[in-house]
Amino acid sequence: MGNIYEICEKIVTCLQYEDYDFLNEHNALCRVSEEDIKRVMHEYGGHLSPIPDLADAMYINKYNDKSGMKIDLDLWIDGKRSDLTLQVEIKLSENDRISGYRILDLLVM
What is the mean pLDDT of residues 39-57? Predict the structure, then answer.
């Protein structure tokens, strides 16, 4: 599952440094726009921090049809765990390889 962690870490890093070009290139913003993410981050306040223990901040829900999974990732703001959650979908190919990912939502949970 290392690739799942790498993808989530890369998405958080892109959001942290506002590297939306990378996310656009990988079609990660096909459901949620750059403007929506910026608006939610601005309204929430604070600065997005690296997540110290990604495995502890992640809730993975695998799809019954084995086509992928939805991940709820608790974000860290100003060095503290927050109630701001990034929802990511990771799609899998028939041989269980990652075929794509996208941000589903950014919300307070």
Answer: 94
pLDDT of residue 2: 57
Contact, 91 vs 68, CB < 8 A?
yes
Beta pairing partners, 65? none
Q: How confident is the model at residue 96 (pLDDT cuts 50, 70, 90)?
A: confident
Q: What is the 3-state secondary structure (H, E, C) of 75-105?
A: EEECCEEEEEEEEEEEEECCCCCEEEEEEEE
Three-state DSSP class for 25?
helix
- How buried is 85 (Cβ within 10 angstroms: 0-12 exposed, 13-18 middle, 19+ buried)? middle
Phi, psi of 66 (to 5 degrees): 65, 20
Three-point CA angle 33, 109, 96, nearest 5°: 65
Q: What is the pTM of this model?
A: 0.93
Q: What is the pLDDT of residue 94?
A: 85
